[in-house]
């Protein structure tokens, strides 16, 4: 299944386990969970049955019985589907910890043929935005409804792991659209320009490609054929330095160099596929997106197989992102994998040389 195959479907209530989506998308569950914690994907735990949900101010969450009037408000439990976890809890689960919590960020419930996320908004607020400090808690139902929270002062706790989390089809669709559109790497590509200070999970080889693209292909739409050929030659010479040194000799570096030079060059991209405001090519943006998708969580958590992507998975996602030329996904997979160690002879992106060459380029 490619990203474009993911659809909301006819059932607005459709959802599946995080493990299901990990299998469908070919992305480790804990990596998906990391990106959920970062706000890119909405996940939830199933709501328990036979409970009442309350909005409670966090000041009284540990001792609900002490909550004064107005600090604890009953929410409608009708159609309750799931509970949205706090960001910190999601990060803890992504790190491999089992989290037990009784406080939740919001409630998901079915409503009029749709599912909606209901934040704990006090009825008196008159606003559609969540007031700070309010959370959702659940209590076992009491025969005397209006005193349920007084008789049962301890909220219901849920033990949450990746295996007990779910995502709606509609939210997975939103996530894949975020990947395909480039929104996922808005922190790395600002106003069409890739930031020069790249995160550590970006491989040295990919960094060299991004430097070559930034350095040699600025203003490419207004150059004549001779200038285009000159830039291609200079970009290739640039990649024959540190990029070449970073290539494992078993990885066919000559083929990787050919791929890198072509992928950096926006002039060979059909006009209908070019990115509107950027020098960066679609395949280069896809590589940066997939590097963040797979290698950011693996770099942060160092969780071995739990976040280590298989080569087949990375290639599959790259093809889903549009990297489809012969052997392109395979070459891109090799390039974006972070190096185990940086070769000591590298010139650390040669900042002085970059500045001089950048100044020499026609504007």
Task: Provide a concise account of the structure shown.
By secondary structure, the chain is of the alpha+beta class. The chain contains 13 helices and 13 strands.
What does this structure look like?
A six-stranded antiparallel beta sheet has the order 1-11-2-5-7-8. A three-stranded antiparallel beta sheet has the order 4-3-9, with no helix packed on it. The chain is α+β, with helices and mostly antiparallel strands. The chain contains 13 helices and 13 strands.
What summary fits the major beta sheet? 6 strands, antiparallel
Report low-confidence residues grouped into runs of 5 or more: 123-128, 143-150, 342-363
The percent range for strand residues is: 5-15%
Shape: elongated
Radius of gyration from CA coordinates: 25 Å
Distance between the termini: 44 Å
Tell me the total number of β-strands. 13
Mean pLDDT: 84
Which structural class fits the helix and strand makeup? alpha+beta
> Level of helix content?
25-40%
**Order of strands side by side in the largest beta sheet?**
1-11-2-5-7-8
Number of domains: 2
> Could you give the order of the helices and strands?
EHHEEEEHEEEEHEEHEEHHHHHHHH
Number of helices: 13
């Amino acid at each position: 299944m490619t990203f474009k195959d993911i659809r909301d479907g006819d059932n607005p209530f459709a959802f599946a386990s995080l493990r299901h989506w990990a299998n469908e998308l070919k992305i480790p569950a804990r990596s998906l969970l990391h990106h959920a914690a970062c706000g890119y994907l909405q996940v939830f735990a199933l709501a328990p049955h036979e409970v009442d949900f309350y909005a409670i101010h966090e000041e009284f969450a540990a001792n609900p019985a002490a909550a004064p009037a107005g600090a604890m408000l009953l929410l409608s439990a009708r159609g309750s589907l799931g509970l949205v976890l706090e960001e910190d809890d999601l990060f803890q689960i992504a790190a491999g910890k089992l989290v037990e919590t009784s406080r939740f960020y919001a409630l998901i419930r079915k409503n009029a043929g749709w599912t909606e996320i209901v934040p704990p908004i006090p009825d008196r607020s008159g606003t559609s935005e969540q007031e700070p400090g309010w959370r959702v808690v659940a209590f076992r139902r009491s025969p005397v409804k209006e005193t349920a929270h007084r008789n049962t002062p301890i909220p219901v706790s849920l033990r949450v792991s990746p295996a007990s989390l779910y995502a709606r089809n509609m939210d997975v669709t939103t996530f894949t659209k975020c990947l395909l559109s480039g929104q996922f790497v808005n922190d790395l590509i600002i106003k069409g320009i890739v930031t020069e200070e790249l995160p550590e999970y970006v491989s040295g080889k990919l960094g060299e490609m991004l430097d070559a693209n930034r350095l040699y292909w600025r203003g490419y739409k207004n150059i004549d054929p001779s200038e285009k050929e000159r830039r291609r030659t200079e970009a290739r010479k640039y990649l024959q330095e540190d990029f070449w040194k970073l290539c494992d000799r078993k990885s066919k570096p000559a083929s990787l160099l050919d791929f890198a030079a072509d992928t950096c060059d926006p002039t060979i991209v059909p006009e209908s596929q070019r990115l509107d405001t950027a020098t960066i090519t679609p395949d280069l943006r896809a590589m940066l997106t997939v590097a963040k998708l797979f290698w950011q969580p693996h770099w942060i958590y160092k969780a071995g197989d739990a976040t280590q992507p298989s080569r087949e998975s990375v290639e599959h996602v790259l093809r889903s992102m549009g990297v489809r030329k012969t052997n392109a996904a395979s070459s891109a997979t090799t390039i974006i994998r972070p190096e185990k160690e940086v070769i000591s002879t590298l010139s650390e992106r040669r900042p002085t040389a970059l500045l001089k060459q950048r100044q020499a380029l026609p504007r």
